[in-house]
Amino acid sequence: MPNTEDKVMPESNRVVLPTNVKPLKYRLRLEPNLGEFTFKGSESIDLQVVEATSEITLNCVEIEVQSCRLAGDSGEGLAPRETRFDESRETVTFQFDSLIPEGETCLEIEFTGELNDKLRGFYRSHYTDADGAQRYLATTQFEATDARRAFPCWDEPAVKATFELTLVFASDLVAVSNMPASSEAEPRPGLRWVSFEETPV
């Protein structure tokens, strides 16, 4: 009997990322804009470089990267020489001029995306409030391979890490996650942020 699984599984889902770099912890900040159906985000990823390399490849699709840097021991940042997107493989590769040695380092990325209406990644949905008005919310669907639509990441079940999430949003809204809130503040009128406790691996 022929194997039909290969015929239906998208090619991008079969792409396995290089194993020379592994994430340890994500510090992720997301700021949805429910008026424009967009979001901006930033992340700081603690990495374990298993084998010295000059490039780092993550899963990423329908995300625009504004900046990237590899944080050095002395605090300076090393920006990639080239950023390559591969839409068919749903990846982004950061190519650096120099070799990244084995050990721990930190990758910092700023990015933007669309709060899509595809029920995938970080997307928009709507509901009717008590007054009969239509309201919007931002929510997530990451299975099986849609976390890469919300932020650049190692979107593979075998590559696990911890997460610290911060959400920034209009102060008349409420934010929930799968961990309890650890702190919150209103930096200016109309804007609120909530940070959540670190997840298990």
Written overview of the protein:
Strand 9 and strand 10 (134-141) form a beta hairpin. With 201 residues, this protein is mostly beta strands. The protein is built from 1 helix and 13 strands; from the N terminus they run H-E-E-E-E-E-E-E-E-E-E-E-E-E. Helix content is 2%, strand content 54%. The strands form 3 sheets. The protein has an 8-stranded mixed beta sheet with strand order 5-4-8-2-1-11-13-12, with no helix packed on it. The model has no long low-confidence stretch (mean pLDDT 92). It has one helix spanning 5-8; strands at 21-33, 38-49, 53-59, 63-71, 77-78, 82-86, 91-100, 103-114, 121-128, 134-141, 162-170, 181-188, 191-196. The N and C termini lie far apart (39 Å). It is globular.
Task: Name a few traits of the molecule.
mainly beta; three-stranded antiparallel beta sheet; eight-stranded mixed beta sheet; globular; 201 residues
Structural category is mainly beta
Tell me the span between the first and last alpha carbons. Answer: 39 Å
The pLDDT mean sits at 92
Give a short account of the largest sheet: 8 strands, mixed
Total count of strands: 13
Strand percentage lies at over 45%
Strand order of the largest sheet: 5-4-8-2-1-11-13-12
- What's the gyration radius in Å? 18 Å
Q: What would the principal axes of the Cα set say about the shape?
A: globular
Note poorly predicted spans.
Answer: none
Helix content: under 10%
Q: What string, H for helix and E for strand, traces the elements in order? A: HEEEEEEEEEEEEE
State the helix count.
1
